[in-house]
Amino acid sequence: MALSDHLATLSKQAKSVEDSVNSFNQDTAEKISAKRAEAKKSLDATKVKIGDQMNADADDFSASWAAMQKSVSDGFDSLQDDIAKKRAARAAKKAERSAEDAELDAEDAVDFATYALQEAEYAILDAAYARDEADRLQGQQG
Q1: Cα–Cα distance between 118 and 124 in angstroms, integer?
Q2: E-assigned strands of the chain?
């Protein structure tokens, strides 16, 4: 019901009260009793109507409140999921960098080992050459 409808109802009710008060001196006890019973009946109906409306409003409010709570909860859940995904992505990047660093270290170690083997081979060949030279020179003297 629109606000103007509520105001029209209020205006009618105020006019009815005014008419009732103005007629008290002219009405008989029987008429007043009948108007009183009618007013009580109208009051009870209005109480029920207002109670129903309040319950409906409360249900709407409860539903809206629950929806808002769910929306906020879903928002926080989504935020937590995003944070977890970002942390996982950072952890994966960190692990990738660590793996790349370890691979580079391994390549350096293999390169060093290759160099050490080449040095060893050269030293062995140098020793063999030196031995051969020593043996040849001793053979010429003796």
Answers
A1: 10
A2: none
pLDDT score of 1: 64
Question: Is the separation of the CB atoms in 117 and 125 below 8 Å?
Answer: no
As a whole number of angstroms, the distance between CA 30 and CA 84 comes to: 79
Maximum distance among all Cα pairs of the chain, rounded to whole angstroms: 167
Please state the rounded mean pLDDT for residues 47-62. Answer: 82
> What is this structure's pTM?
0.43
Q: What residue has token string 């009405």?
A: 27
Q: How does residue 89 score in pLDDT terms, banded at 50, 70 and 90?
A: very high
Q: Is the dihedral of CA 92, 94, 95, 97 positive or negative?
A: positive
Which distant-in-sequence residues (6+ apart) come within 8 Å of 23 by Cβ?
31
Cα 82 from Cα 84, distance rounded (Å): 5
